[in-house]
Structure formats: structure tokens, C-alpha cells
């Protein structure tokens, strides 16, 4: 067996431009010339993996009205169905190369370079003539996942301390210019100071004032803010590479997680197992911003936060960020039986979640996380391979993220490889070898959608079900009835 590769150095993030071996102008010219081929390669990979046609629900929406995308989107080998895959052993799927490509680890849009990368609709907000986030644009690279599969923008903000207020964002992107007006009379002075720091730009690996940067925007040279990625305390799914791994091709893509509900979480970072929000906040500034490299961080301007006067207040604000309201759930985090009868697809989906589908073994109620880490051993289903510069191999244990509010934060899994909830259910049906039926998978999706909605459903006792194509369409008079329709791919 071939020995796994190790890097030649642990200090491979020191770029030639940083030490004067190439000028910024020459580096930028070279990066711009290479951009189209790099972007085209990544988009070709996505087209090979997924049906990216926008199929959106006309019934199920995020808090501020964006319809959720409907899947599954992953393309299958010719002649193969999800049901056929679910009947096969891991070894058989691996040896025959049948694991859906869309469920393999997803590389960074330019894995060799990596770095923070923001969705184009965020950069162009509110419009191309008045781009509030133009400073976040990289001259060498564009984001890859289409907007239809990303969270709504800007997202709502809910506070644990003032649930009576609902969404306090006023439909705005919170900025240094408006945060005082938005939160006056709602937060105390300490929380406002924490929020100010979270909105303040600090130098970062790709956004800094040295010659080793990927921005030519004057404001971009000032750095990035915590709430650029965790916009409004949620996420835009801006992407990066995990900084703890070497060599570069073994680093994992990590899409920005939501900060909603961090007050009930006990581990932070997908694989780092940091033990507090304070640790996470400090770590981001000292290490993650600079790919875990001390040498470049000192050159680019590492921001050493004071633990007692700065980290503390930043964490205090983050701990106030709540999940979206879920009026379909009771105090125990489970469906209210007064709203959902035993025969409704949602209640059937909940029973599957806590039993046959085994979801609750890692995602127990009420917040749907066990606050630990698990290695799903997905590598049982595929051979080690290199994909656009990333080595897809053993992934190791990953943090169990909460599922409360899950429909608000697509795509799913730490690297965003699962574009929809349907893809997520199909993925786990294969790797956990559950052998769920088509109807059971549809019921599980129905539970995941309604269990986190901000709209109260009308009571439903008798669903009117009819079979359409490969999945079940679940119909009822309720305003929240679901149409889960499969499409090509």
C-alpha cells in the first residue's frame, strides 16, 4: 500500500510576494491571467456532480421569504438509482466506483491557493453599481456554489434575551455605520462593544496591506470582519480551508457555520474541539485568519485581542444569537402533537428521525446536537483520489452541528457538498446503510423542514398522499404542505 503523503514543510504559507521575490503587480497579473481556467475547472466539477437547475419550493421558505432549494441534486452513474445504491455494501460501491460524485469531499474553488472566498451576491450587495462588500472581492477567484443553494441574504437576527421582538435586523445588513441604531435599547453597552469588534476589519491572509494579498481594493487591504463571514450572526457560506492540516492538498474545505445557538454548543471548530466561544473567537484572529501560520501572521498584522476586555464582550454578543423560532415544536424540542397527528408525514418523519433513520443518535432534541464529534468513515465508500488539487481520503471526526434552523443554512456537511436536505437524507441513507424507502425519505425531509419553520402550521390529521415519480408528493390543505419532487440527476 502506498504510504500517505506528508508535506516538505510546515511553513508552506510563506508566499514569494511576501519576501520580495515577486512584485505585487506581477503576482496579480499572473493570478488574473489564470483565473478563468481555474474558475472554469471548478464549475465543470460542479456540473459533473450536480444538477444545478434551480428547483425551489413554492411552499417552504426561509425566515425572510427565500424559497429553499429542492433536491436531490447529485448525479448518479448511468443505470443507477439511490435505492439500488442503498442495497449495496460499502466495499461494493467503492470497488465499482459507484459512490455519487456529489457526495465526495468538495474542494475549495482553488485548492492550491485556498483562502477566504465570499459569494458573489454578497460582494455585489445591494447592486453592482453600489457594492457594499466590494472590498471582499478577490482578483484571482470567484465563488462556486450558485446562490439558489445558499442562505438568504441578508439573514434575520433572533436574540435569546428578547424572543418577543422576533427578527431584530430590520431587514438590514448590520454594519459599523448602523449597529447602534438597530440595537439601541435592546442590547447593553458591553454587548454593543462586542458587536462593534465583530464588525471591525482586521488583517487576514488574503486581505491585508502586504504584497501577499488577493485584493486590490483599498478597503480590502484593511482586512475582514468576523461578521463578513458570519453575516448578521448567521452565515453567507463563505468558504476557506481548515488551517490545521499540512500539506495543502490534504486541507479540508470548510464553509462558514452559523453562529445561531452557539450558547448551547460546547465544541467549536469542525475538528479542533475548542471548548468555548471565547477560545473560538481568539483562535480565529490568531490562527485561522492566517492558515495557522505564525510567520505570515506577524508580517500581515495579527490582531492580538485582550481576553478580558475584548474577547469576553465579543463572545457575550455571540452567545445572544438564537435559532429561528420553531412554533411547531414543544418545550422538549419535538413536534407538538396538537398540530401534527400520528398520520401526518411530519410526525412519521420525526419517528424515523428518532428510530430507524438513527439521526437522533448524534442529533438529539431539543437542539439536535450531542455536542461531540463523530467519524462517519465515509471513506469506506470511495478510493483515495485527487480532485482539483484536493486529496479525498479519510476525513476523521467532525463536530456534530445543531440541526435547529437547518433549512436556513444550506448547503450541508462541513464542506457544503450536500446542496439540499434531500441530498443530505440520501447521503446518510447510503453511509449509515439505513435502507429507507422512498416514502420514508420524503417523510424525514418533511420533518426536517417543518421542525424548524417560523410559520405555525394548521393542524393536520389526515395527509392526502399520492406517488409522483421516484419520490412522494405529500399534499394537504395546510399552508405548509410540502411538494418533494425529484428531478433529473
From the structure above, extract its key features.
single chain, 489 residues, alpha+beta, Cytochrome Bc1 Complex, Chain D, domain 2, 2 domains, two-stranded antiparallel sheet, two-stranded antiparallel ribbon, 13 helices, 12 strands
Provide structural commentary.
With 489 residues, this protein is of the alpha+beta class. It folds into two domains: 1-49 and 109-325, no CATH class; 62-104 and 327-489, Cytochrome c-like domain (Cytochrome Bc1 Complex, Chain D, domain 2), CATH 1.10.760. The protein has 13 helices and twelve strands. The protein has helices at residues 24-49, 82-86, 90-95, 120-123, 179-183, 189-198, 226-229, 277-286, 294-300, 307-318, 345-354, 421-431, 438-450; strands at residues 56-61, 67-69, 126-127, 130-131, 239-241, 253-255, 373-374, 385-387, 390-392, 398-399, 464-468, 471-475. The strands form six sheets. A two-stranded antiparallel ribbon has the order 1-2. The chain is globular. It starts with 23 loop residues before the first helix and ends in a 14-residue tail after the last strand. Mean pLDDT is 91; it is low at 454-489.
Helix-strand layout with pairing:
Elements lengths: L23 H26 L6 E6 L5 E3 L12 H5 L3 H6 L24 H4 L2 E2 L2 E2 L47 H5 L5 H10 L27 H4 L9 E3 L11 E3 L21 H10 L7 H7 L6 H12 L26 H10 L18 E2 L10 E3 L2 E3 L5 E2 L21 H11 L6 H13 L13 E5 L2 E5 L14
Antiparallel strand pairs: 1-2, 3-4, 5-6, 7-10, 8-9, 11-12
Helix pairs in contact: 6-10, 8-10, 11-13, 12-13
